[in-house]
Amino acid sequence: MIRHYKDKIHLLSDIIKNRENIKNEQEQTILITGCFDILHPGHIGMFQEAKELGGKVFVGIKSNDAIHISEKGITGRPFNDENERALVVSGIESVDYVFVYDDSLSLIEEMKPTIVVKGPDHNETVQGKKEKERVESLGGKFLTLGPTKTSGTTGIIQKIIAFEDNNNKKVK
User: Fold this and answer.
1) Alpha helices by DSSP H, 4-103
2) Percent of the chain at pLDDT above 70?
3) Which whole-number Å values give the CA distances from 42 to 5, 34, 38, 47, 49, in the listed order?
């Protein structure tokens, strides 16, 4: 039986408090964090590959406030608010738990996941490297999953802008 998608959304404090009760001894705790503002095939592939590792897949949705103070906030993002993003991600079958967070390094420290997963485009970022160091210092693993040949969120946004620019030129 499929869990109702809304049952997958939790407060971060509840996830931290009940982490040991959520998984059994043999299961891995797989943490994926990000904005997930505009979902694309790369996200879906990453979620599915993470689930295939065995264990519970926890997806942290970066809060609106955290995005606003990051480089993405400068560009007017997020386009979708944190609750909408959490609702969309919770509808993905390979995702077990969804919550909103502010800081990924603090989250890794509190949650102590077995594995932290990032998409291929985030592996070499400064933040990705910090997350890798943090999870490995706690005895966990850092993996890069998901297809490499897919248009990411920034690419999708650029296509939309180009489409709009092209249409506006035709109208004039």
Assistant:
1) 12-22, 41-52, 64-68, 71-74, 82-90
2) 79
3) 21, 12, 11, 9, 11
Q: Which two tokens stand for residue 16?
A: 């931290």
What CATH fold (topology level) applies to the domain 5-171?
Rossmann fold (3.40.50)
- Alpha-carbon torsion angle 144, 148, 151, 157, nearest 10: 30
Q: Phi/psi at 164 (nearest 5 deg)? A: -65, -45
User: Using an 8 Å Cβ cutoff, are 49 and 104 in contact?
Assistant: no
Q: What mean pLDDT is predicted for residues 119-123?
A: 74
The maximal CA–CA distance of the chain, rounded, in angstroms, is 64
Give, to the nearest 10 degrees, the angle between helix 104-111 and helix 126-137: 10
Q: CA 75, CA 19: separation in Å to the nearest integer?
A: 35
Q: What is the mean pLDDT of residues 13-21?
A: 82
